[in-house]
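User: Could you check the structure of this?
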Amino acid sequence: MTGRPSQPVRPARSSRRSQKVVQLKPVIVSVGEILWDRFPKEAQLSGAPANVAIHAAALGAESWLVSAVGNDSLGNMAYNRLDEAGVHRATVPQIRSYHTGTVLMKPDAKGTMKYDFAENVAWDHMSWSPQVERVVKRAEALSFGTLAQRTLQSRDTVRHAAGATPPRAWRLFDVNLRQDFYDSETIRTSLTLANAVKMNERELPEVARRCGVRGATDADVLLALCDKFALRLAVLTRGTRGALLRSHTLAVEVSAPQLPVVDFVGSGEAFTAALLVGLVEGLSLDQVGTKACALAAYVRSQPPATPPIPPEYR
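Assistant: Sure, the predicted structure tokens are below.
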């Protein structure tokens, strides 16, 4: 299954005056949290939707982020980072009453990174607006997760956005289960609003259990999710072992390039960005998966979550 079976290659737009050919950019919209990861020695701009937006812009998309920051120094720094990355931020207002989001990152005894999210911050108060509506109605792909739905106001905005996309748009539920900021209703409703889902190996069993689906293999579980929620695509990421992409008619397993691993932060969002751009451009599942795995592997080999993307990974 591909994003646009009838149009495998997006047409270019030509200008009658100049006779120059201008390649259309895929319009990718990410909805959800933008925050600063606080490590013991540094802070990095993050939040899965923000990372997806930055990676999508690096891949040449017209990339929009729907979120909110505080009217504070971290909010100003976030604006600067989005501007540098080429992400459109007219849909990321500064809210005077709340601080910009942060999360304390610290490893546990086993070395696994733990997250401690500040609560009642700006992105918990994302609001629907005419500007957001105009952008979402132009989206060719929209990505959203669970974390930004932890408060009623932001949950309504996320769900309103998913429901307002054009019928042909890809609506990806990019599962990101964090702490206790999710429940069965959030997962099931998100799957109902989406037409595609992406999750990792830790999240798949939890999503399957809460949705009441089973299967002898991962591919069977993904197909069961597709069947139950009328999804066009279900994707399982496997880190350094690649990914599994499942539609109603096709299962594609893709390996990942074996590059040195420096940091896993940001690699999942890189995969999402490449996946969405590839789907909008009408690439085959094998092509989409190969590109997404390659970009994720490259990002894992670099220290920051959103490093500059070399031409060979675009």
